[in-house]
């Protein structure tokens, strides 16, 4: 049984290690086929039991972006564009007067964090405002805009970018992510959100450094506190040469 959140990571590893992308294409098609009338995809498919994890629909949008920019298969991605737009339309319909998305019905799982019951962050209950979910929505919008632009759909791209520029500052204040360049701390939960935050901070220090070091080097330099979160990235660096 494949879940969208896990499958995206497995597809990324596949793109790095192999030129055979039949399984990623099959996964993209199956999740698209699982779509409900709301526009959201099911969290796992094929499955006899229907399960809805709305954030996983956003990860499916990102999977489409991953495939396009790793494989440059425009015909395949173009056929799935209606599905991408359906997901984003479903989330757009949940935006309030302040432009922020209200949490949809379903299991709004983000990550297995000890303080988050069932992996749902604060604000994950239907109708509430969830910071991480809004951040993920912005992330998916950015990926979708790049796909639309690459496939010659600039009008849709401009609409997406206009929403991000207008509403993103409020979303940032709501979420309370650490500022760029601050010292990252990785909790014992090995949270993917903490990993992303630490990577962002390390990348910011890298950009300001005169030596122009890599983000992974910057993360390693923080008294060893970030080594856990970069271990997978360091492992994949040599593998990238396989498809060179």
What does this structure look like?
The chain is mainly α and about 240 residues long. It has two domains: about 5-175, Glycosyltransferase (Alpha/alpha barrel), CATH 1.50.10.10; about 190-244, no CATH class. Helix content is about 55%, strand content about 0%. The protein has ten helices and no strands. It has helices at about 5-15, 20-35, 55-70, 75-80, 80-90, 130-150, 155-175, 190-210, 215-220, 225-240. Helix 3 packs parallel to helix 6 (about 130-150). The model is unreliable at about 175-200, about 200-205 and about 220-244 (pLDDT under 50).
Q: Choose one word for the global shape.
A: globular
Q: What percentage of the residues does DSSP assign to strands (E)? A: under 5%
What is the class of the largest domain in the CATH system? Answer: Mainly Alpha
CATH topology of the largest domain: Glycosyltransferase
Helix coverage percent of residues? 55-70%
Largest sheet: none
Compute the number of structural domains.
Answer: 2
Secondary-structure element sequence? Answer: HHHHHHHHHH
Low-confidence stretches: 176-199, 202-207, 218-244
Output the radius of gyration.
18 Å
Summarize the structure.
With 244 residues, this protein is mainly alpha-helical. The protein has ten helices and no strands.
Write the topology of this structure.
Blueprint: H1 4-17, H2 22-33, H3 54-71, H4 74-79, H5 81-92, H6 131-150, H7 154-175, H8 192-208, H9 215-220, H10 227-239
For this entry, give a set of tags.
Glycosyltransferase, 57% helix, 2 domains
């Amino acid at each position: 049984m494949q879940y969208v959140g896990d499958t995206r990571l497995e597809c990324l590893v596949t793109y790095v290690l192999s030129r055979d992308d039949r399984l990623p294409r099959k996964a993209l098609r199956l999740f698209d086929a699982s779509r409900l009338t709301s526009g959201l995809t099911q969290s796992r498919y094929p499955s006899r039991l229907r399960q809805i994890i709305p954030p996983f629909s956003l990860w499916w949008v990102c999977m489409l972006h991953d495939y396009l920019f790793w494989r440059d298969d425009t015909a395949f991605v173009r056929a799935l564009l209606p599905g991408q737009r359906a997901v984003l339309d479903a989330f757009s319909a949940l935006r309030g007067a302040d432009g922020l998305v209200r949490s949809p019905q379903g299991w709004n799982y983000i990550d297995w964090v000890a303080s988050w019951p069932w992996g749902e962050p604060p604000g994950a209950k239907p109708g509430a405002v969830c910071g991480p979910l809004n951040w993920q929505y912005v992330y998916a919008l950015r990926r979708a805009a790049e796909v639309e632009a690459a496939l010659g759909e600039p009008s849709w791209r401009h609409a997406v970018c206009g929403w991000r520029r207008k509403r993103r500052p409020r979303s940032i204040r709501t979420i309370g992510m650490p500022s760029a360049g601050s010292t990252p701390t990785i909790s014992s939960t090995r949270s993917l959100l903490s990993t992303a935050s630490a990577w962002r901070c390390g990348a910011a220090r890298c950009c300001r450094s005169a030596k122009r070091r890599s983000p992974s080097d910057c993360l390693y330099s923080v008294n060893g506190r970030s080594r856990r979160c970069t271990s997978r990235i360091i492992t994949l660096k040599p593998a990238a040469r396989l498809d060179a």
